[in-house]
Amino acid sequence: MAIIAIMAGLALHSFTNRAQAEKLKTGTQSMAAWLDGVRQLAIQQSETCAIRVSGSGGTLLLEPYGSQTTACPSNTPRFDLKAASGATGVVLCAAAQGPTTAAPGCGSGSGNLQLLFTPRGTSTTDALLQTRLEGVSPNRCIQLIAPLGLLRIGRVVGSNCDWNKAS
C-alpha cells in the first residue's frame, strides 16, 4: 500500500507539472497569435497599429498612435496572459532587444514597451517577450524582429531563447 501511495503521489506531481507547462505554452501561443492578428489588421486597414505591453499586468493593449484618435483597430480586445493561459501565477516580461541578445531574467513580470506594426506589416521595434510560471520549466519566449515584423516562438534554455524547440 505504501509503495502504491508513493507511486500515485509521484504520478500526480508529474501530471500537475505537465498541465502547468501546457498552460504556459498555450498562453504564449495565444499571445503570438494575437500579435500576428494585429499585424494582419494593420495591413488590411492600412494604418499603424500601436500595442502597449504591460509586463507587470501581463497585458497587451492597442492604443492610438501619432495623430490617430482611436486605436487601430478600435474593436480588438486587449490580450490578458492570465486569462489566455488559465494560470494565475503566470507573468510577462518585455524588453526591447534584438534577436541575438541573451534573454533577460524574468522574475515577477516587468517591462513596459510599445510595439508598432506599420501599414505594410513591418515593425519598428525589436522586442523579446517572455512568459514564466513559477515551478514550470522552461520559460517561453516570443521574438518580434524588426524591420520585417516577424514573430517566432521558442523556449528559454539557459539564458537564451532556443527557437528550435518551440513545442
Structural notes for this entry:
This protein is 29% helix and 29% strand. The protein is built from two helices and nine strands; from the N terminus they run αβββαββββββ. Strands 4-6-7-8-9 form a five-stranded antiparallel β-sheet. It has a four-stranded antiparallel β-sheet with strand order 3-2-1-5. The protein starts with a helix and ends in a 5-residue tail after the last strand.
CATH topological fold name: minor pseudopilin epsh fold
Run of helices and strands? HEEEHEEEEEE
Q: Strand content of the residues, in percent?
A: 25-35%
Mean pLDDT: 84
State the end-to-end CA separation: 37 Å
Extended strand count: 9
The residue fraction in helices comes out at 25-40%
List the main descriptive attributes of the protein structure presented here.
5-stranded antiparallel β-sheet; 2 helices; 4-stranded antiparallel β-sheet; single chain; minor pseudopilin epsh fold; 167 residues; 29% helix; alpha+beta
